[in-house]
Design goal:
eight-stranded mixed beta sheet; alpha+beta; 23% helix; single chain
Length: 565
């Protein structure tokens, strides 16, 4: 048994909490219900595509495909009928660039005669032959979390250096399947230097650009030589180079380059390389996009906008007592924050179709951040398009995804209200013909209070949790304090090394509406494990989901005690 597994088993009882306490009869978050027969979902408000909505409609699904959509759908006798009164159905969301469930590949060791000025391709971060699915865990809790937010398809991007490898497109279906829709759908490139920093070439942005040009041109020459050798006699045999060979689909314009960029300067650098070499380009993670919209249009580049938005604490900062220099700095940060919220509207105004990427974002913030973008000028139809048909077009999967039409995959999200409604929640997700059910929390009443909650959400206080897991039963406490606009806290648990209770600081405590999230570290047998928690607060109860490294998520309940600070 590996040391990690031993540690995990020793603390499994101790840290599993904040998860779903409903039985499978009420909820099926693991999607064991396969839509293999014929199912009719009727009396729903169905948005088949942005701006196209059917009232009191029926959607007929057979063997995981959409058979019919409309108001006059004939329902076969053998169909299972599901009444969806008051529910709203939309195409399943598509993530343009995701690292959900993607782990880091094993890096090679440096040889004794390592030359930082001329490293091997692997040590230079140039590994275009790597396939992201080799390091993808489809049972990872991140997949569960993003599906719970309505995402059914994602393009996975590999971890690594400047050219980390090939992407793959997967569906977030049942964990018994690999769920792969296509491989080698794009080549990822980053302005990320080799291991060892600037001392190892290429370790700077300009060095990366120079190295990319060199690799790309050599790949072009190798591809041309290979084709000539295959069609003519009397030519020397070409040397096979796995780096150049992996780039043949790019130089032949069969797949795009997905450039991960962070600001307008990196966007310009990527556009410059695209203009020189003529490859198809996807810009992922763009910021300051309003400065380069004309250049993007000219290059016919695709854009994936981050779902991640910056922290808004700076917008509430008091500047009266600050120095003039600090006031000016705070003002610049506030302006940058506002510009970030307006990026999506800026792309829409410029007529640039875009999708979204979940890179570095939190799944629980999806709807909140989309509403912020809409409040800052983005239309709801364009927001929905970015999540569905635009993303499908960018990934080249529009023939079977992005809209709800006959013959397309039965990927859809079923909501309790209109898309981006303040109280709207995800009730069901159908992905790859598997239905996933989720718990729906009480809505707010006319006084802004949650029904059954008797007031606004308050997490500060003393909580006790208990957990029943395959390893046994355990209990502990959460102690949360309100500090200004934020929170601090401490969690206790049975010490995995023995000797009673241990405690850890609760980090990054966040409360958005009724959604709580935080992380903490557990030390056991000389190892440190990072635990991430997301949950829902309902009065004096918390339920949610916990992610523990590669071991997935596990259930528990927490109850607030009548002690305040």
């Amino acid at each position: 048994m590996s040391p990690k597994l031993q540690v995990f088993k020793s603390i499994l009882v101790l840290v599993l909490f904040l998860s779903f306490h409903e039985s499978k009869a009420q909820s099926d978050p693991i999607g064991e219900k396969r839509v293999t027969g014929t199912i009719a979902i009727k009396n729903a408000t169905i948005t088949t595509a942005p701006g196209k909505t059917i009232q009191n409609g029926t959607i007929l699904i057979k063997n995981g495909l959409i058979e019919a959509v409309g108001t006059n759908v004939t329902i076969p006798k053998e169909a299972q009928v599901i009444s969806a009164d008051s529910l709203f159905i939309y195409p399943g969301f598509i993530d343009g660039a995701s690292n959900a469930g993607v782990g880091k590949p094993t890096e090679p060791e440096k040889p004794s005669d390592f030359n930082p000025a001329n490293p091997s391709d692997e040590l230079a971060g140039i590994t275009p032959w790597r396939n992201v699915v080799d390091n993808y865990d489809y049972k990872n809790n991140q997949v569960y979390e993003w599906r719970k937010s309505g995402f059914t398809i994602a393009q996975l991007i590999p971890e690594g250096g400047m050219i980390p490898g090939k992407t793959a497109i997967v569906v977030f279906g049942n964990s018994t399947s690999t769920n792969i829709l296509s491989q080698n759908s794009a080549m990822v490139v980053k302005f990320q230097g080799a291991r060892g920093g600037a001392r190892v070439y290429p370790g700077t942005p300009l060095g990366i650009m120079a190295k990319f040009r060199d690799v790309y041109k050599n790949a072009e020459l190798a591809s041309r030589h290979s084709k000539l050798f295959a069609s003519n006699s009397g030519l020397n045999r070409p040397e096979i180079n796995k780096t150049y060979e992996a780039l043949y689909p790019v130089v032949d314009n069969n797949i795009p380059v997905l450039f991960k960029v962070s600001d307008d300067l990196e966007i310009r650098r990527a556009l410059s390389l695209q203009k020189e070499n003529g490859f198809k380009l996807i810009l992922a993670g763009v910021h300051d996009v309003e400065k380069v919209t004309n250049e993007i249009i000219s290059a016919k580049a695709f854009v994936l906008l981050p779902l991640l938005l910056p922290d808004d604490k700076v917008t509430k900062a008091k500047t009266e007592d600050l120095t003039e220099e600090m006031q000016a700095r705070t003002k610049r940060v506030q302006e940058a924050y506002q510009n970030n919220l307006k990026q999506a509207a800026s792309l829409e105004a410029a007529g640039i179709p875009f999708g979204f990427t979940s890179m570095d974002a939190k799944s629980g913030d999806t709807f909140k951040n989309l509403r912020l973008m809409v409040e800052n000028g983005l239309t709801e139809n364009t927001a929905l398009a970015a999540l569905t048909i635009n993303a499908a077009n960018i990934l080249g999967i529009q023939k079977f995804a992005g809209t709800l039409e006959k013959g397309k995959l039965a990927n859809m999200v079923i909501l309790t209200g209109p898309f981006l409604g303040e109280d709207t929640q995800v009730k069901h997700v159908i992905a790859d013909g598997f239905m996933f059910d989720y718990e729906v929390k009480p809505k707010k009443n006319g006084n802004g209070e949650k029904n059954g909650n008797n007031g606004a959400v308050a997490i500060n206080g003393f909580w006790e949790y208990t957990a029943d897991t395959p390893a046994g039963s355990s209990s502990g406490t959460l102690e949360i304090k309100k500090e200004g606009d934020g929170y601090s806290g401490t969690i206790t648990y049975d010490n995995p090394d023995g000797g009673g209770k241990a405690s850890s600081e609760m980090k990054n405590i966040s409360l958005s509406g009724s959604s709580i999230s935080f992380s903490f570290d557990v030390a056991a047998n000389g190892m440190a494990l990072d635990v991430n928690v997301t949950g829902e607060v309902n009065g004096d109860q918390i339920s949610g989901n916990l992610s523990l490294s590669e071991f997935g998520s596990f259930p528990m309940n927490a109850t607030k005690k009548p002690i305040s600070f």
